[in-house]
Write a structure and sequence with these properties.
single chain; mainly alpha
């Protein structure tokens, strides 16, 4: 698809002719430059479309990655919670023994 490029081809060709370039070469150069500008505009538009519209698969991958990360965190929290409870029970048991021995 050809994009509209704000480029005055007639003025450009006339400038080339005024500086000694033959009419045939000036027109060829103008067409070549216009083609390059249109291609660059096309690439720029395609890039902007990619940036503006993230793909659905990348969003789903991102959501799956977040879900997996949260699942791992919950698993780690559960493991540490059990360890903390075991440690607290051990300390409480030791304190009870110390109190019983101190009261004898």
């Amino acid at each position: 698809m050809a994009h509209v490029v704000p480029f005055d081809t007639l003025a450009y060709a006339k400038t080339l002719k005024a500086h000694g370039i033959s009419a045939e070469h000036a027109e060829a150069h103008t067409r070549a430059l216009l083609q390059v500008l249109q291609e660059r505009m096309s690439i720029k538009q395609e890039t902007q479309n990619i940036v503006d519209k993230p793909s659905v698969s990348s969003n789903k991958d991102f959501e799956n990655n977040i879900d997996t990360t949260f699942a791992r965190l919950e698993s780690n929290f559960s493991k540490y919670k059990i360890e903390l409870i075991q440690w607290m029970c051990s300390i409480s048991f030791c304190q009870a023994i110390i109190i019983i021995l101190a009261l004898k």
